[in-house]
Design a protein that fits this description.
Helices cover 30% and strands 26% of the residues. By secondary structure, it is α/β, with parallel strands linked by helices. The strands form three sheets. Strands 1, 10, 11, 12, 13, 14, 15, 16 and 17 form a nine-stranded mixed beta sheet that branches. An eight-stranded parallel β-barrel has the order 2-3-4-5-6-7-8-9, surrounded by four helices. Strands 18-19 form a two-stranded antiparallel sheet. The protein starts with a helix and ends with a strand. It binds pyridoxal-5'-phosphate (PLP).
């Protein structure tokens, strides 16, 4: 994020806020594509950040949607149905029934269990509309189904005229740094694809694979980028080595949008005691989570604005506004004389940071969300939201509203 944009945003909007940079998002997607073979498609897992959905959707072939709420966001924003993959471990009858009827163009539905398979078949039958499915292969947890079940359900698809079996979805976790592990997963998928052909004559046309592309939060930007690039190059090679020669879509969240986000939080108090220096900020850990920094021992990318280059740097504990000793955003951050009114800007904050926190704890307001477009214009896309009313019974005229 350019310094000028940050300064303008701080000038215009009260902290805390999230700031997402559309230009950086497009650059990152273009960068990913430049490292991948041209036939590989991209699918954005919108759970990583639904505020940048519209911008991301312009750049990718597909959007992975994991809840009715995510689907309604897509529908309201006019994301084409042909880009949408309805995924997720809990798909309920009402939502699926309604979606199959009202959105016949949905690209794919994933199957996470036998019950989901039955539900999807029934919804297609009742609506009299064809649907296309991907079987989610489990990686040994509550998600997806075992290889044997994939084979069994793919065979059953042959008897379902309205249900087209298109292929396999596989996602086995985020922040995967080992290309060996990715290689093992892809070889396992190859074996399953061979089985499907040999045992039931079913051809797999596509693979939607979530590599869990890692983002390094605690390294300098160049090192973080080089590490990611190396893994993507290895991934591309491993995909090329597969026996499978159908269409591949990479399902990505963090690796696509982390770099486009900044969280800005203002210093509201400073103090020192025998245990150290403390700067209290108006945000906190409920609004902002970095993967792997639960104890705040690591130093995330963080800049103090205004920058004071001629001051004396000293270690400061940066603490949020919650009533818990665990609300430390960074321990021992080296900064020059932080003052009330200064703003701390945390980088690489575009993925999960804002939704994985316990934002309602203490009923503090939810931060505003600001978007910087490709021309550098800033726009408020979500106003700061008073959250106390979400975190209490419904109160009408000073009374709790009771209903049966
Ligand atoms: C099914 C599925 N696909 C893709 C993703 C995105 O993962 P990442 O952000 O690691 O790229 C997730 C994240 O939880 C997921 O559950």
């Amino acid at each position: 994020m350019s310094g000028d944009v940050l300064l303008r945003a701080i000038d215009q909007y009260p902290t805390p806020f999230y700031l997402f940079d559309e230009g950086e998002l497009h650059r990152q997607v273009a960068h990913l594509r430049s490292l991948l073979s041209p036939q590989i498609e991209l699918c954005y897992a919108m759970k990583a950040n639904s505020f940048v959905l519209q911008q991301a959707a312009r750049d990718v072939e597909r959007i992975e949607v994991c809840s009715p709420g995510e689907a309604y966001t897509c529908f309201e924003l006019g994301i084409p149905d042909e880009k949408i993959v309805i995924s997720g471990v809990h798909k309920d009858v009402a939502f699926i029934g309604e979606t199959v009827c009202a959105h016949p163009g949905i690209a794919r539905y994933t199957v996470e269990s036998r019950a989901q398979f039955d539900l999807l078949c029934q919804a297609a039958h009742e609506a009299g509309r064809p649907i296309s499915i991907l079987m989610r292969l489990t990686s040994g947890n509550q998600f997806g189904i075992a290889a044997d079940e994939v084979v069994e359900l793919a065979r059953r698809c042959k008897e379902e005229p309205l249900v087209e079996f298109c292929g396999i979805q596989h996602y086995s976790g985020t922040q995967k740094t080992s290309s060996k592990r990715i290689g093992r997963e892809l070889r396992g998928i190859d074996r399953l694809i061979a089985r499907l052909w040999e045992e039931c004559g079913v051809r797999v046309a596509e693979l939607e694979y979530g590599p869990g592309l890692p983002v390094s939060y605690y390294e300098p930007a160049e090192v973080a980028r080089a590490e990611q690039d190396e893994l993507i190059a290895a991934l591309d090679g491993l995909l090329a080595d597969m026996d499978f020669d159908g269409k591949v879509a990479l399902e990505l969240g963090r690796g696509m949008v982390a770099s486009c986000g900044t969280y800005a939080t203002g210093i509201v108090d400073t103090k020192s005691n025998e245990t150290g220096n403390y700067a209290i900020v108006d945000g906190g850990k409920h609004q902002f989570v970095y993967y792997g920094n639960a104890m705040s021992m690591r130093q995330p990318p963080c800049a103090l604005i205004p920058e004071r280059i001629d001051g004396t740097p000293a270690p400061w504990n940066i603490c949020g506004s919650l009533c818990t000793v665990t609300d430390i955003m960074v321990k021992q951050l080296e900064v020059c004389e932080p003052r009330v009114g200064d703003v701390l800007c945390f980088g690489r904050a575009g993925a999960y940071c804002m939704t994985e926190g316990i934002s309602l704890f203490l009923s503090r307001d939810l931060p505003a969300v600001v978007m910087c477009d490709t021309e550098g214009n800033l726009r408020l896309v979500r106003k700061r939201l008073e959250s106390w009313s979400l975190n209490s019974p419904t109160i009408v005229n000073g009374q709790i509203e009771l209903s049966e």
